[in-house]
Design a protein that fits this description.
Distance between the termini: 93 Å
Number of helices: 9
CATH architecture of the largest domain: 2-Layer Sandwich
Radius of gyration: 29 Å
Oligomer: single chain
Strand order of the largest sheet: 3-4-5
Number of strands: 5
Shape: extended
Number of domains: 2
Order of helices and strands: HHHEEHEEEHHHHH
């Protein structure tokens, strides 16, 4: 056997060992994957970084958090229905996921859009060359009950997003539809903005807590007091443990 053949054999053996980890799977239902297996799969998947940042991979802990929350929502972490915010360790539901959840909760009709317009508010700089501020109201019917959400461009415009710059009204409609579905389904109402919003609004990542290094000499003056307090506690404890004489 040549060296090339031996290397090929080793690779094939290693691949077989990796596939062996999935030998106990009964079907392709992602909910039947053992937590550790799902975590390993999610760790291998590259996720798109923010503008100017490279793709990244989840840590084992992040992968487990992502998998557990996705299981609670009933949405596959391998799909485009959810995504994981690595800065805040939260699982966020996309528009596609919210539509899926809303349909599971009842009969959801097609979205109805209404163009709105108002004067620019005081202190707000005009956006996109519009003489008046544009807005869009989206209404969806769930089980015959209407649910509406109104979006104004000054509240949702993403200055760092090329899509928002070239298609602001389209993105405004998408945002109104997304929020209307969130209220209709109850999914994502209290969530943080999704990554597209975070990137555009330049919301900073959570700041690391400062590490405070305390030196022993900082407590030098307190040592006599602490020793005296400890002695008093020990004496009181001995007094309580002392047997009573009749």
């Amino acid at each position: 056997m040549t060296a090339t053949q031996e290397v090929a054999l080793q690779k094939a053996s290693a691949t077989e060992d990796r596939l062996q980890a999935f030998s106990d799977l009964k079907d392709f239902d992602w909910k039947h994957l053992p937590p550790t297996v799902m975590a390993r799969v999610l760790m291998k998947k590259p996720y798109r970084g923010k503008s100017g940042e490279p793709d990244y991979y989840l840590s084992p802990e992040q992968a487990l958090v992502f998998a557990m929350r996705s299981f609670e929502l009933g949405l596959s972490p391998l799909s485009s229905k959810v995504w994981f915010d690595r800065d805040r360790w939260t699982t966020n539901v996309t528009l596609e996921g919210k539509l899926r959840l809303a349909r599971e909760r009842g009969n959801v009709g097609p979205p109805q859009f209404e163009d709105l317009e108002r004067e620019w508010r005081k202190g707000v700089s005009p956006i996109g060359g519009f003489s008046k501020e544009p807005g869009i109201k989206c209404t969806v019917n769930v089980n015959g009950e209407p649910c509406s959400y109104r979006c104004w461009i000054s509240e949702w415009f993403v200055p760092t997003s090329p899509v928002w710059k070239t298609k602001p009204l389209h993105m405004l409609a998408i945002r109104a539809y997304d929020k209307a579905l969130a209220f209709a389904s109850g999914a994502g109402i209290s969530d943080m903005p999704n990554e597209r919003e975070i990137q555009a609004e330049e919301v900073p990542a959570l700041v690391e807590r400062p590490t405070i290094s305390v030196q022993r000499q900082d407590f030098t003056d307190m040592e006599p007091v602490l020793k005296e307090s400890i002695k008093l506690v020990d004496d009181k404890k001995k007094e309580q443990e002392r047997p009573l004489h009749k």
